[in-house]
Amino acid sequence: xxxxxxxxxxxxxxxxxxxxxxxxxxxxxxxxxxxxxxxxxxxxxxxxxxxxxxxxxxxxxxxxxxxxxxxxxxxxxxxxxxxxxxxxxxxxxxxxxxxxxxxxxxxxxxxxxxxxxxxxxxxxxxxxxxxxxxxxxxxxxxxxxxxxxxxxxxxxxxxxxxxxxxxxxxxxxxxxxxxxxxxxxxxxxxxxxxxxxxxxxxxxxxxxxxxxxxxxxxxxxxxxxxxxxxxxxxxxxxxxxxxxxxxxxxxxxxxxxxxxxxxxxxxxxxxxxxxxxxxxxxxxxxxxxxxxxxxxxxxxxxxxxxxxxxxxxxxxxxxxxxxxxxxxxxxxxxxxxxxxxxxxxxxxxxxxxxxx
Length: 356
Ligand SMILES: Nc1ncnc2c1ncn2[C@@H]1O[C@H](COP(=O)(O)OP(=O)(O)OP(=O)(O)O)[C@@H](O)[C@H]1O
Description:
Keywords: ATP-binding, Cell inner membrane, Cell membrane, Membrane, Molybdenum, Nucleotide-binding, Translocase, Transport. This protein folds into two domains: 223 residues, CATH 3.40.50.300; 123 residues, CATH 2.40.50.100. The chain is 23% helix and 36% strand. The protein is built from nine helices and 21 strands. It has a six-stranded mixed β-sheet with strand order 7-8-9-3-10-11, sandwiched between helices. A hairpin with a 2-residue loop joins strand 13 and strand 14. The two termini are 29 Å apart. The mean pLDDT is 88. The protein binds adenosine-5'-triphosphate. The site of adenosine-5'-triphosphate (ATP) has 11 residues, from helix 1.
């Protein structure tokens, strides 16, 4: 699903000017509040009059103002879930989802209901659903339209952290099982890292960086989102194992497994995601022994940057996964934390919180 965006749209304080080409399987769109993220999604959805330029999604030309092409929103096959996605209050959850399928394929309804685990909610009306449940229904309604691309505008922003954590695992399923390409607006670097293959960083309507998520979501992204990247989390996704000696482990990659709080109710092989707050990780220069933390992971520092207020963030590569660790600038100096240095991270089992 290639994405070609070359568009200009005058906004109140500046013009949105985006010129990028992306593979488009899963793209995180990041930027401060007011940087133009919603406007960009609306251009793709065909909801912003006045946008000039070209929008080509998977080879289909949605907009080509020079050639007089401006496809109608309903013909674009964009599954748009706006920030304040409204459900029809007089329809049940199921009827809301089926409403989406009017323009799509009916078989998509069952798929979306199963994927988002809406079975128990189908007969409920929106007024009786929690924020996270409403978001799942809105997402299912968008999926039921059989979209070529999902446009998700920070679907979790309005929710508190606990609710928020309930929706991310579903987005991972949408990506991995439904395999619908998505453009996803978020403020959370941790979320973007686990969800997106590519990232697009906007600043005052301009593209500050675009490309592979591993490159874009580093230092400059944190600098740009500084005030919003507090409480940064590492999000790890993998398969659960139950070793014979007892306990529960999350196998993230060949070289990385993590002890997580024991969850005997989850069968081995279950896919799961866990969040580990960047400030809950201890960084040590030497090998650690005799510590109570059950996870001691060896890795290499790949970047250190100031995070304001005497704080710093070190990025550490462990078996191909990137971890962010918060520490003070004083610790960075005293310990000599710098790119290329081998370190060990200690992560308490209890610091690994399962999402959902
Ligand atoms: N219809 C419009 N016409 C003119 N300017 C607009 C319009 N809608 C939004 N703007 C302005 O354009 C800028 C970008 O807004 P937009 O909603 O796209 O940002 P955003 O990055 O999605 O913000 P947030 O993270 O707060 O949702 C803001 O300065 C906003 O005031």
